[in-house]
Protein: Uveal autoantigen with coiled-coil domains and ankyrin repeats
Organism: Latimeria chalumnae
Amino acid sequence: LKELETENEDLKGKLRKIHQDQKLLMDKFNEVQQHIKQERAAYDNLQKEKEQLNILLTRKEKEHEESLKLNESLKTKLKSYEVQIQNLALHFSQNSDLLVLKHNSLYVGDKLKTSSSLQPHAPSRSMLRPLELSIPSQSISLENDVLKKDLEMMRKKSDIAMEDNGKLQNELSSKINECKCLEAECKRVKDESDEQIKQLEDALNDVQKRMFESEGKVKHLQALVVALKDHLAKEGSSGKSQMMEELKEQLKDMKSKYEGASAEVGRLRSQIKRSETTVEELKKVEERMVEENKRLQKEMSVSKRAKEEAEKKAVEVEGCLKEMEAKLALYVPLQKFDNMKSLLTSAVDEKEKQVSEMEKEYNIAREEICKLQTDLKNQRDRMVDFVKLKEHEQLKSTLEHHTGQYKKEISELANKDKVLQKEVEKNKQEKQQLKQQLQELRNTIATQYVLVKSHEEIKNSFNQTISNLNRKVEEMTQKYEESVLETEQLHRERKSLTEKMQNLQGEYMPKEEHGIQVMALNSKIKNLKEELCQLNQKHSDTQMEVRKLISENSSLKGEINSQYVPQTAYEEVKTVLNSSLNNVKAEVDELKKENTKIQEECAKQKEENMMLKKELKGFQDRMQAEYISLKDHEEIQASLSTTVQDLQKKLTESTAKYERAQCEIINLHKEIEAQRKELDTIQECINSKFIPVTKVEEKQNAFDAEIMDVKNQLTEQTEKYNNAKQEMERYRQENGGLKSEILSMKQNLQLNYIPNDRYKEMERKVTGKVDELSGELGELTQKHTDLKHEKERLQGENAKYSSELLALQTRMQGEYILLEQFETMKEALNSTVEKLKDDLESTKTIYEQEVEKVRELQQVLERQKSSSVPLVEHTQMKEALEMEVAMLKSDLEKNNENTKQNEQHILKLQTEIQNTTKALREEKNKDVIDLSKYNSMRSTLEAQVVMLNEKLSSLTQKYKAMCEEALQAKKEELSAKDEKETLKSRSFGIDQEIKELKDRYDMSLKTISDLQSSIQESAKQIEAKDNKITELLNDVERLKQALNGLSQLTYTSGTPTKRHIQQTEVLQSQVKILQQQLADADSRHREVISIYRTHLLSAAEGHMDEDVQAALLQIIRMRQELVC
């Protein structure tokens, strides 16, 4: 009775909780109504904004009407003015006609009156003063012009106003359309919200009705339970104390067994929680390892890209240098050198001194080259101990490749360990599930009798489960063997890693030599800049020489045009020149021999350069052989990605297997429940067919023994797994120790690779050699200046010779010569001048070649000095140098363009010379050239040049004015664009507000749909509860029938029988089952209400939390369970 009272109190508490939940639902409904009110307020605000826009529209329309009225008034005024003007014009035309008629009549009257009277007729006042009529007409015309201008201004203003009005009307029409769309959307939202509110109210009413019905059913059940208690109390008073005591003892045994099972379940749950925590920790470790692997792969890809870019840039720089060498080789063609050997004049004697000095400089340069070569050899011997840049880069790339492979292997091993751990955990879970199933089966066997058929069926099912367990045990043993093999592979890989680390410890490049390479690169840049300056100076010198030659050519032309040469002097000069030519030819032969020797030496140096290039190619081939290509890297990456995908597929398959196992467990639960239901029907036939307890106990003992064997096997496997796990942890620790050792080795290598004493000695040597080279460069610059001074002296001597020639020409004015002989002499002189120019250019080219050789030797020295640098700094320095090289190339291109322009100018001068020679040939028959014509032509040409310069200046001014106008137009366009952008930003802000309102509306629709779905789910759950309640009522009715049958039996037979005792036990067990079912339904109902509450709150607030998502998933699971 006490238990029944407690049950009644629990039911009352449940009813109170149900009422509280209903109140909470009502509160949530009120919150939803408040949310709808807020939406209505927002809708009202939109309507107010619409009204304000309408007011603005009316204002704009009024302003437009006023402007139209002003336009109409102006048009009427215009028309009135035009009518007045027309009237005035008509009036003046009529007056003029009348005046003409009067004048004609008066003229006729005067003719008639001449015969009678001789006095002249006095003219009228209107004829005497005709200007009085013209003055008002002029004033009217001026007024008309002013009115027309005003009219045009007003028309322009009206057009602008019309355009503004049109724009405003278009904007207003767009805003009106948007407002209409918003109104339609608001109406639709309002209608939908009203419908949804109605649906919610109907759903609430249905829920309340069902709650009241459930309360009535619960009360009815309580009454039935009370009646059962009374009936049992009456039966207990009729002397059945022995049976009750036996039942109590059985209940105590069941309770003790239940408590033991619950304790085991608690232990299993704690183990599951611990395994879940370990799984989560392993997942976190796996994620960290994956992130580290990704980061390392990114760093590897970035370093490889930088390396490839640096190689490409180096190749481009080499190509540019080759192009520059080709261009420099093309500057001095061989034809000029061949022409130089053919003809020479008396000026060659003066240039012999320059040639001898250049030979001396060449010998000095050769000595310097020999010194540099000896220094090179010494430095090569010294640099044997150092490591080259290419070797350093190769070692670095191999190290990076090995580290990447090791990291990948470590990550793969970690993934395999995690997969094994997951599989072990899954096996543990399956083991726990099997234990639970076995415990449930034991309870069923101990409490109730079993039929022969059901016993055989259960036996078959147990045999199947045992065979499945044996299979799983075999699978676990296979997995353990695989893990052992993987551990052995890890041992081997660890040994290989240690060996590779020991090999790599002896190979590293120092960081200190980077400064030497930077200094060398800076010196290269300075040398390039100095060479640019020298080239510019040489270019300016050549321009000066060209100008001087042009001036000399013009002076010679003037002298030839002004005076003739005598024949005797011509013959004497011819003999002298022939003798000098013979001498020069002998000297030229000697120079050819010396030139051949120089060319042989140049060929030897070229062969040495080719050998060096071959060595460079060999190094490049080694680089290509030892490096890994991008394609191989991508293939490896693809293979790794495929392995990762395979692992993911395996994971999905394992999860699918786990889900299948869960489904199988659910099916087993269903079968157990079905068996329980079948037991109710089987209990009526227990007296006729049953098996003795001894056989059941024997079979139970056999099953226990089998289960113990399975447990022992599982314990052995768990021990093996733990041992494997400990080994994996030990390997991880060892890997961490190896990483720390690698870091320490790197730090030691960075700090102490080369001793400081050697480094200082090398620095001193390098600085001394740099100073020597700088001194040699200073000496070369001094020699260049000396050459310039000698050149100026020779130019002065040329001037002296030209003055002496003029004196000779003045002496020989008496005797003359033919023009043909003079022209031949002139051509010979021009050829000698050109040959002298070629001589100068050839000497310059020889000097430049020697300077280039010195530079190449310096570059070789600097390359051997700068042995190794880190890749990142090397790429940075290389990029900076490439930028500077590009600047220098641009300067060189500019200089080349200038030289081309000068060549074009020289060609023009040559064409002019040819034209002058043609003119001279045309004037062969003439004895003397007219200086007056020449001066006149010159003056006309100068005047034309001045005119062209003036035109050029005017055109440049016009161009500047046009540019300013274009800039002003661009500024106006930019201002217009800014105004457009401001308008666009305003319209964009309005569009964003509209989008926000639409988003809010969509969120409200989503919340309403979520509420609808939650209400439907709650309705389904309530229906399921109703079905359960109906089932309970049916059970109660069955119990009533059984009680009635028992009461009839008691009346018929006063003594208790075995059947009566069995029926009472069955009834008690059914009552307990019903109580458990009620408690389960109550707990589920509470969970549903709490989830519903959280869901409603989140939907009202407009967001979805993680808890709410979890609750929704729980609702879906509960629904699936109910459906099952």
In short: Residues 2-237 form one domain.
